[in-house]
Amino acid sequence: MAVKPSYMGPRLKRIRRDLSLTQAKMAEDLDVSPSYIALMERNQRPVTADLLLRLARTYAVDLADLAGGEDEEAAARMQAALRNPLFADIDLPALDVADIATSYPGFAEAFLRLDLAHSEEQLALAERAGEDGEPAMGASDPVAEARAFLAARRNSFPLLDASAAAVAADGADARSLSDRIAERHGLRVEIADEALMRGALRYHDYHRRRIMIHEGLEPASRAFQLALQLAVLEQSQPIEDLLAEGRFSGEDARLLARRALQSYWAAALLMPFDAFARAARQLRYDIALLAARFAVSFEQAAHRLTTLQRPGSDAVPFFFLRIDRAGNVSKRLDGAGFPFAAHGGRCPLWNIHHAFDRPGCIDVQRVELPDGERYLSIARTVEAGGLTWNGPRTTRAVALVCRAADAPRLVYGDGLKEGAEPIGLACRICHRPRCIARSAPPVGRELLPNRFKDAGLPFAFVGE
């Protein structure tokens, strides 16, 4: 079978350097001109199938070494890291980045580790900051540390995606998962009543060798609980390996991060990466249809959409937020590296707060931050609890957010009116004038006296 000609200049250069050859010597060995070698190394000429085979024969090179999958992934990760505004004034051509990733893999890995550590530290500082932007004093925050761990990695863990997809190939419905638990782990799955479960959703009865699932759970939740159980049983070592890369000040933060990775794997099992990403594009990111196709909840489908930012992926980047009626954030997931994701959630003008007015209905809003960045926000309420008539239950609101520029790729962008609702990150750091919803004056602004005029605003300040 003929090999397609392809551009692989940096990999060709690496092979030549590894063999300590000059361009002239390699040209002589391959019966081509030195200038042709130079053009191929600069990606100005393809490496033809014939030349590729000559390379393999002449230097005993494995064709797989020229495939360069890992090099391409490293280059894609470096390109993503170099989009940081810190490097905005430096000219870094894509070919040079690819050359570094291929020719100097050790340096590339060192750069990526440094970038990851820098991202984690920046996110940790942002999470520890108070509303006025000043660092909060006191003990470390395990929730913030766990969120920083996920956000620094753009909530994407390809190794977990790959292992979950392998398991999903044998079936990802409740029956298939129950069979796997029984066959591989000798545990039978039972649907148990409330009297036995006492409010628990899932219970591993170690001595009786059984996994009990609460009878009140809907089918989607039953499958998710079984997937979570498999994550505990089968993914302990891969998850611990990932946690070893993190920086946690205590066991609580590590525990929360471990739970998040277990949930990640469970979601990847029910919604395999390739199939889910393909369906998201086909359905134009219609969350309700995605939830129906993969037999999951609205929140699970929305959550999964934040995990598709694998290097080279063309998926729309999203971040996800979940709040209660008091505005407390109970889940924050960022698969895109948006500043809004790290700090947003406190502005009452954002539609995530309006979702409680219309339970179960999807609300779409285009918003604009003070810096001019625009986003598309899809918000809806979700329910939790209520397994029995008098059991505890709660209503929360979730929002899935992407850049407004991506709105045409989403079904939610169809027919959306122009313009955007001006919102802020938090009142203390928002300097928008004449905001009737403001709960506090912005830091550093002098309040206006109202001796002769009442502006009708909670806090009128100089400059309005």
TrEMBL record:
Pfam families: HTH_3, Peptidase_M78, ScfRs. PROSITE patterns: HTH_CROC1. Residues 12-66 form the HTH cro/C1-type domain. Transmembrane segments: none annotated. GO terms for molecular function: DNA binding; DNA-binding transcription factor activity. Keywords: DNA-binding, Transcription, Transcription regulation. It comes from the Bacteria. The keyword Protein biosynthesis does not apply. InterPro entries: Cro/C1-type_HTH, HTH_RamB, IrrE_HExxH, Lambda_DNA-bd_dom_sf, ScfR_C, TransReg_Diox_bact_type. GO terms for cellular component: cytosol. Belongs to the short-chain fatty acyl-CoA assimilation regulator (ScfR) family. This is XRE family transcriptional regulator. It comes from Aurantiacibacter luteus.
